[in-house]
Amino acid sequence: MISISNIKKLAAALVLVLLVCNMQTTNAQTPGAQKVYATKTGQIFFNATGGAVAIAAVNNQVDSKFVDATGQIIFGVLVKGFKFENQLMEDHFNENYMESSQFPKADFKGYIKNIKEVNFTKDGNYPVEIEGNLTIHGTAQKVSTNGTLQIADGKPTITGEFSIKIKDYGIKGLYIGEKIANEAKIKVNCKYQN
Question: Lower CB density within 10 Å: C or N end of the chain?
Answer without folding.
Answer: N
